[in-house]
């Protein structure tokens, strides 16, 4: 019986993640929702309002950084954030 042996690829074949990629790897939409959901209770939320709720709920700096990158426009619901944050994973 033949055995298939896979060769490991050298670690230098892939560049290390950038700082932005590392931040995204540590942030999930689930965690974002915990910190910003209340921003939508009275209607659409602006980026500034979303950031204020995140800061008020003691969100980690990585969460704030992701939210600061949002376009400055009103978001009718939290679901509208996910269109802008499609690159952020849902959960861990």
Helices and strands in order, then pairings?
Elements: H1 19-26, H2 29-36, H3 47-56, H4 61-68, H5 78-84
Helix pairs in contact: 3-4
Organism: Micromonospora inaquosa
InterPro entries: DUF2795
Pfam family, one: DUF2795
Briefly characterize the structure.
This protein has one domain. Helices cover 45% and strands 0% of the residues.
Can you offer a commentary on this structure?
There is one protein chain. The chain has 92 residues and is mostly helical. It has one domain (18-84). Helices cover 45% and strands 0% of the residues. The protein has five helices and no strands. The protein has helices at 19-26, 29-36, 47-56, 61-68, 78-84. Helix 3 runs antiparallel to helix 4 (61-68). The longest helix has 10 residues, at 47-56. It is globular and about 45 Å long. The N and C termini lie far apart (40 Å). 16% of the residues are buried. Residues 8-12 have low confidence and may be disordered.
Spans where pLDDT lies below 50 across 5 or more residues? 8-12
Euclidean distance between termini CA atoms: 40 Å
- The class by helix and strand makeup works out as mainly alpha
Shape: globular
Rounded Rg:
18 Å
Topology as H/E string? HHHHH
Tell how many strands the DSSP assignment holds: 0
Q: How many distinct domains?
A: 1
β-sheet strand percentage: under 5%
**What is the overall pLDDT average?**
83
- Into which percent range does the helicity of residues fall? 40-55%
Number of helices: 5
* Major β-sheet annotation: none
